[in-house]
Design goal:
The complex is a heterodimer of chains A (about 475) and B (about 425). Chain A has about 475 residues and is an alpha/beta fold. Helices cover about 40% and strands about 20% of the residues of chain A. In chain A, the strands form 6 sheets. In chain A, strands 1, 2, 3, 4, 5, 6, 19 and 23 form an 8-stranded mixed sheet that branches. Chain A has a 5-stranded parallel sheet with strand order 8-15-9-10-11. In chain A, helix 1 (about 15-25) packs parallel to helix 4 and helix 5 runs parallel beside helix 6 (about 160-170). The longest helix of chain A has 19 residues, at about 310-330. With about 425 residues, chain B is an alpha/beta fold. Chain B has a domain at about 115-180 and about 255-345: D-Amino Acid Oxidase, subunit A, domain 2 (D-Amino Acid Oxidase, Chain A, domain 2), CATH 3.30.9.10. Chain B contains 11 helices and 19 strands. Chain B has helices spanning about 5-15, 40-55, 85-100, 105, 125-140, 150-155, 185-195, 240-245, 310-325, 370-385, 400; strands at about 35-40, 60-65, 80, 120, 145-150, 170-175, 180, 200-205, 210-215, 215-225, 225-230, 235, 255-265, 275, 280-285, 290-300, 330-345, 350, 360. In chain B, strand 9 (about 210-215) and strand 10 form a beta hairpin. In chain B, helix 2 packs across helix 10 (about 370-385). Chain B starts with 5 loop residues before the first helix and ends in a 14-residue tail after the last helix. In chain B, about 55% of the residues are buried. The chains are: A alpha/beta (about 475), B alpha/beta (about 425). The interface between A and B is medium-sized, with 33 and 37 residues.
Chain lengths: ~475, ~425
């Protein structure tokens, strides 16, 4: 590891890989930093592993990732695997841990492509053993080929839920039921955006295909379920819900939840970048321009971490950020950059066409935004929704004060799993808009680092400076 | 105000704790106050509380740019001790420490004062000699403090590395058994609740943007929530105090630097005292939650951004990992910084100013939390009676003109 790099890309998913390759092809020297042992991000996780489940199970879209990893392998990009970034500063210093020691490097430009995180779906019982997210299920499927053989229920809404259901069925798994929580009103609002979505019909065709697979396997598909509750003595035994005024219960041993993904804003928040509230998707989006540039000089954003668009959109945004950063670094002439950026932008607009339809259809149900009182909201510190409401009752005026009132957001996940919910609860209790309530101030480290690793900080830049001094003398 | 007690706890338990009343109101500012305090940290709120309680001044407001207790009050490592070197310092820090002893009863709010003992390590011959001098000065002033040897350090804190072959071996320690820690937020909340109950308006999200004067007398403050008329303005805004009093044309000999702290993940109790190791710029205690709370030295440059240099933190952690080898595998959960306001002699300023009706209380540097009750008590007296309280008098601004400095750069114990 060298102390000073030209371009550092954080995250080796589709956006990060595309940005790194694009900039490297323009002549920039690029390092790609990623937490995982192999490239791919969440969506193409384990794509380079020989042991991954086949195309017949995970589908063509997943295999597309191999093209990206192949171009990455053929490029001059220096890929640092198993390296966890835990702080990024506005001066473009990056602190990370690798092999039990901390490192610090400084980059002339940074592309942050850290992707999305699953939106928390809190309801009573969601912390019982046996309940996990659909994303976690996919990790087990992609990395270890694990398929639940019985007692699986999927609940929530969004395309990923149908995708993982289809993947499990193809892999020979059994699904007790798919319980959809998409409110009926979403269908009406989504209908308006249908013509726009038909401009890029591929997504809709895929969606209908997944539904057909569910029907073919005769999976029980419950729609417009409300008032979800996971019950069990010490571990999950059943999912309860209401539908059309009647109580239902389905026995299960594994419950996978999903209500969409939201940008992972830990790094952009820690950088104190401005974030806009997306009222439809109920999430924060870090502000950036059409090239992915932020208000901080030399810091670019790409992919789902800046706004949800999916793998293809992320790849296009990655290319745009790669070109824009190469232009900023001076390795790509402005004129050439402009022409190529324009081409990528028009493809991006085409790919973004179905988003308004999907966003409206899968807008999260209000019941999971501000859950009932007895629901645990902050899993790390075991703070319930009722406790957050009681802090507001005592005079707490924002999410940062809930930290001192009751420690929500101060555990190992650093607020990733409760940040949105805590702000939503405060907003609804105090009848203020989310943009005013705001979000946690995110403190470094973004991922916990041990004191030993910290004490063993390698200041790569200082070390390089020392070496050059020695050489000079 | 509903008093908190075992009975009120039981009563509210019956209703699932849903009926607790707000701990303080959120009033809009009135057009006129008898006094306005700028800054709702511990010092500002304590000042308001004692003004209302001891001096019956209840038509007063505390203005806060952010939220109460959100500045340095909520950012420090909560150490309470009074073993400073100079008599003037001992007087105010010991007043504060003794008020902490029964503050929970006074405020009817559990401030969790825990006199678990503070050990200040001696790791060089020079440090040993300097602390012996402080020990003698403190004994003369009547403080309960003593020097202890390496064996006793090890007995009080078994996890410490007492190897004589360490880079900085433990030669002994200076020990204050009635020093300890408190719950920083609770101190702010307790004073806020007490002051509010006595009629003080605490106005959050209200930034002071200007101070108006008529001749050499203050007449009011401009704020983000409108103009407020008042004849007494007390500025207690830590690192931002100098910026605010400049609005009235007063300059302060204060520099602002960032001081950082960090906490580890929570673990079972491993250390039941406070250890300060000044040679290596680090101090550590364990919170009631089980986290190790670690503080370091201040940055070497001026700064207002609440974000400090990483090197100072790394320096601290490296030294502490050597002093407490068992902590190396603990995960660090959060780093944060606070802006501390430093004076040349590392002693605070509690003073009237050349502008009539303008009072300042700042310059607490790295030692603000421990002094909150004492500082508020003497500052309230100074404001109410328009003359310095005897304990506050040596800390007046004129000491810089007259050269009566109160040098605490060694006994302040944090590397400056």
């Amino acid at each position: 590891m060298t102390g000073r790099v030209q371009l550092a890309v954080i995250g080796a998913g589709p956006a990060g890989m595309a940005a790194a390759v694009e900039a490297a092809n323009c002549g920039a020297s690029v390092v790609l930093i990623d937490e995982q042992p192999a490239p791919g991000g969440q969506i193409y996780r384990a794509i380079t592993s020989a042991a991954r489940p086949g195309k017949a199970i995970l589908g063509d879209d997943y295999e597309n990732g191999a093209k990206l990893t192949d171009t990455l392998a053929a490029s001059t990009v220096d890929h640092w695997t198993a390296t966890t970034v835990w702080q990024v500063t506005p001066e473009r210093e990056i602190y990370m841990t690798r092999d039990g020691a901390s490192h610090r490097i400084t980059a002339d430009a940074i592309v942050i492509a850290n992707g999305a995180t699953e939106r928390p779906m809190p309801f009573p019982g969601w912390t019982l053993p046996g309940v996990m997210t659909a994303g976690a299920g996919q990790i087990l499927l992609k990395t270890a080929g694990l398929v639940p053989q019985a007692g699986l229920v999927l609940a929530g809404s969004g395309p990923l839920l149908f995708l993982i259901a289809a993947q499990y069925l193809r892999a020979g798994g059994a699904i007790e039921a798919l319980v959809e929580t998409t409110p009926r009103s979403n269908y009406r609002t989504a209908l308006r955006h249908l013509p726009g979505a038909l401009r890029t019909p591929g997504y809709l065709r895929k969606g209908l295909g997944l539904l057909a697979e569910l029907r073919k396997h005769k999976v029980r598909h419950v729609k417009t379920a409300t008032r979800l509750q996971a019950v069990g003595d010490g571990r999950l035994q059943a999912l309860r819900f209401s539908r059309a005024g009647r109580q239902h219960e389905i026995a299960c041993t594994t419950l996978m939840l999903h209500i969409g993904v939201v940008p992972n804003v830990q790094i952009t928040r820690a950088l104190n970048l401005p974030h806009d509230w997306d009222a439809l998707q109920r999430c924060w989006r870090p502000r950036r321009d059409a090239d992915g540039a932020t208000e901080l000089d030399g810091i670019f954003l790409a992919g789902d971490g800046a706004g949800i668009g999916g793998a293809v959109v992320a790849e296009l945004e990655g290319r745009i950020a790669g070109l824009a950063s190469a232009r900023a670094l001076g390795t790509l002439e402005t004129g050439k950059a402009e022409a190529r950026l324009a081409a990528e932008r028009s493809r991006l607009a085409q790919e973004m066409a179905p988003r308004p339809f999907l966003d409206a259809l899968y807008a999260p149900s209000p019941e999971f935004l501000a859950p009932p009182d007895d629901t645990i909201v902050c899993r790390c510190e075991e703070v319930t929704a009722g406790q957050i409401r009681s802090y507001v009752g005592l005079g707490c005026i924002g999410p940062n004060q809930t930290k001192s009132f009751g420690r929500s957001g101060m555990g190992p996940c650093q607020g990733r799993l409760c940040g949105l919910t805590v702000s939503e609860i405060i907003a609804s209790e105090t009848a203020r808009p989310m943009a005013e309530v705001g979000y946690y101030r995110i403190r470094p480290p973004i991922k916990p680092v041990t004191l030993g690793e910290l004490a063993a900080l390698h200041d790569d830049q200082a070390a390089a400076a020392d070496r050059s001094l020695e050489n000079a003398s | 105000m509903n008093r908190y007690s075992i009975f009120s706890l039981a009563r509210n338990a019956v209703n699932y704790h849903k009926d607790w009343e707000k701990a303080w109101r959120s009033p809009d500012p009135r057009p006129t106050y008898d006094a306005v305090i700028v800054g709702a940290g511990g010092h500002g709120l304590a000042t308001a509380y004692y003004l209302a309680k001891e001096h019956r001044m209840t038509n007063i407001a505390v203005l806060e740019k952010g939220w109460l207790g959100g500045g340095n009050t909520g950012r420090n490592t909560t150490i309470i001790r009074s073993n400073y070197l100079q008599d003037e310092s001992i007087a105010i820090y010991e007043l504060a420490r003794s008020l902490y002893e029964d503050l929970s009863q006074e405020l009817n709010y559990n401030t969790m004062f825990s006199p678990r003992g503070v050990m200040m390590m001696c790791q060089t011959e020079h440090e040993l000699r300097a602390f012996k001098r402080t020990a003698h000065a403190n004994r003369l002033a009547g403080l309960d403090c003593r020097m202890i040897d390496r064996a006793e350090v090890k007995r009080l804190c078994p996890i410490i590395n007492d190897s004589p072959r360490a880079r900085y071996p433990i030669l002994g320690a200076y020990y204050q058994p009635r020093g300890g820690t408190g719950r920083h937020d609770a101190v702010a909340w307790g004073y806020a609740r007490g002051a509010d109950d006595l009629g003080v308006d605490i106005i959050q999200n209200c930034e002071v943007t200007g101070i108006t004067r008529e001749g050499d007398t203050v007449t009011g403050v401009q704020t983000s929530k409108g103009y407020i008329k008042t004849n007494k303005i007390a500025v207690v805004a830590a690192g931002n105090t100098s910026a605010i009093v400049e609005m009235a044309g007063v300059g302060l000999p204060v520099e602002s630097v960032c001081l950082q702290a960090l906490v580890s993940e929570p673990i079972k109790p491993v250390i039941d005292c406070v250890v300060m190791a000044n040679t290596v710029h680090g101090y550590m205690s364990q919170s009631d939650k089980g986290e190790l709370v670690i503080g370091g030295g201040a940055d070497g440059y001026n700064n207002y951004s609440q974000r400090g240099a990483f090197t100072s933190l790394e320096h601290t952690v490296t030294a502490l990992v050597e002093t407490f080898p068992i902590i190396s595998r603990l995960r660090m959960m959060r780093i944060w910084g606070g802006i501390v306001d430093m004076t040349g002699d590392r002693s605070p300023i509690i003073s009237m100013t050349d502008v009539k009706g303008l009072y300042v209380n700042c310059g607490w540097g790295t030692g603000g939390f421990k002094s909150i009750p004492g500082s508020g008590f003497v500052f309230a007296d100074t404001i109410a009676n328009d003359r310095p309280h005897p304990i506050a008098e040596p800390f007046g601004l004129n000491r810089f003109l007259e050269g009566r400095l109160i040098d605490e750069s060694v006994a302040a114990a944090v590397a400056h």
